[in-house]
Amino acid sequence: MIVPVRPTAPALVLLPALALLPVLIVVLNGAHGGGAEILGSFVVGAVSPSMDPALLKALLIGLQVTVATALTGWSCSLVLGVLLGCLSSERLWLTWSLPAWPAIVLRRLMALPRSIHELIWGLLLLQVLGLHPWVAVMAILLPYSCLIARVWRDQLQSLDPSRLQAILQTGSSPMAACMTALSPAMGSVLVSYGGYRLECALRSATLLGVFGLGGLGMDLELSLKSLQFHELWSGLWLLTLVTIALEQGLRCWRSWGEQAQFGQRQAMGFAVAVGLSGGLGGLWLAHLFPEAGSLNWLPVQWPDLHSLQLAAQELPWLSMLWETLILTVLAAGIAIGLPPLLLLLNPARPWQHCISGFWILVRVIPPPLAVLLLLLSNQPTLAIGALALGLHNSGVMGRLLQEGLEQQDHSAQVALTSSGASPQVGWLYGSLSPRSPSHLAYGAYRSDVILRETVVVGLIGGSGLGWQLLESLSSFHWAAVLLLITTYAALTLIGEWLSDRSRQHWLQS
Amino acid sequence: MTALLELDEVRVAGPYGDRLNAVTFRLQNGERIALLGRSGAGKSSLIGVLNGSLTPAAGHARFQGMAIASLSRRQRARIGTLWQDLRLIEELSIGQNVNAGALGRRRLPWALANLLFRVDAEASRSCLREAGLEESLLADTGLDRSVGQLSGGQRQRVALARLFRQQPDLMLADEPLASLDPAIAAEVLERLLTSEADGKLRGGAQAVVVSLHRPELIDRFDRVLGLRAGRLVIDAPASAVSVDDLRDLYAP
Fold first, then answer.
1. How many CB pairs under 8 A join A and B?
2. Digit-coded pLDDT (tens) for A293-306
3. Nearest residue, CB atoms, A8 vs list B81, B96, B121
4. Which CATH code fits B1-78+171-252?
């Protein structure tokens, strides 16, 4: 008799890939005849990108805007995030012999800006401030600083308090004690998490461009909508090069710091780089947009209670929430399950290098562009959004999985293959098993990110909260906008809570 | 008659000189061999050559007449190893770890099924019983327990059961008694060396090579191989190895 047991780690990592089945069935059923030809042109464009000098010049200007926006948004959010993180840490308030309630209040206040995706911030700021290069910077700054503050605060709280107490007992001032006891550990957090946030900022700046806030994203969107795939690929390859350079640069920085074991100096260097890049990014933007002028607040008519009640009755709550949740589950399943599934197909080195290239490409293509591309050959369905979002996030998860696998001990895999297990089975049991808990823990975090990002594909794909939000924003229906953003924020905060619990479970296991 | 195992002038290079140098010996069916030597003498390297995880820089290593480096997956499954660090898979249950011993004879679907269902529970149980795991862990709920919850001695027995589940012709054990208390060590050695009624060892093996740090146990073996700085300096029946031979072998 076959008795099911509680699925163990490697199976739990692979099972989410089952989400691909319904998604692919719907996508393949919805494909129309002309779609294959369009997708073929897209693939051909990859190997023959346009090298027109005028186009390349325009793309390089777009790329400068995107990079300058990302750098400025990132550095400002890192500085503000670290400051807010310190202020929201109860431990630091208590170290100064002050009551901890302001830290708790601040933490609660930061939940709202954090829960709203940078794209929503971008679209809202666009409505109230008009088109201005700093709108995209602020759209990144607002959620990122609160996200960084949360991570910074959590790290501060998780440090062993005995070191701080020991130094305080020597009569040291609270500031000197914090610098001495906490900064060594926090320096490595600053470098590793700060570096990760820079990659995110580059992706966000590109995404904001897709929705009209300037930069390379806008060029990519125009090329795609006019079916100029050769031009589209020129931009995508440029973005790929920048992404690879950034990832390699950050990887070298981390490994350099680990080998040299001078975390303090490395962190100081990083802090100086952050400050410099903020200043340079700002000057760069000013140079690119010399006539931008100052930011002006445009008049917005805030909704009254009656219009809120009316909007609440009009909105299709059930279908909207259902679509958002299903989109999240399917995309998270693809993002978590696809990387190990692809690696399991062939764990040999050459195949793994091909897969690494695939991760870079799916990471570089913003999900709304992928949705637009799929819509050229398919009917608009929820599955399209799930596939685009899942593939994009599988690029992030796949890279981390591969990096983790490269660093881990392979003795169990060697033991299994030397006892005759096939390379696939040896990899599944010997390498994937030990890596599974951390992959699932990161998958829990990524699911939370995906829930936030559903709004991005919803805007394009005609599903979930995102679609309703776009409709409401386009018609200046502020009551509906307010309700939708509140609902979205509540949903992402619940998702964040669930993701935290799930992540802790996997990290402890 | 073809020897079960045959090494001819095997050399393994290491970062600070040869780990094995011109090692030559033959192993026949039914033999129980103790592999002795100081730390760093090359015992683990020799075990690595025998199970194919290390490829010699020179010389030939053959199993049943075939070069070990070119053995197929199925043929490789006929050589089983009890690793010094056990190499159990912490995330899997006791039963799944024992079944991992059978992966050389099975295909990917079976490997996936083993992660989702209780597969071949009776076979796992039987191997665990032969390895001496206590009865309370042999019930279904016991088999489903994670190996991370087991003591050092229990983990050793699960690794031993995995070796038995593999049903190899040749069993290799790399320092299996290290970090075990004397009573458990004696029992583990007993289970590795005891012959069944048909003359075969447990799990159906025809021969066993055990690397040891405890020369006082050599009377339990048929033959002794002694390594010193990568060279084979003793190859003699256990009864013929003198105290002076062992003193020389372990001399600084």
1. 108
2. 777 777 777 788 88
3. B96
4. 3.40.50.300
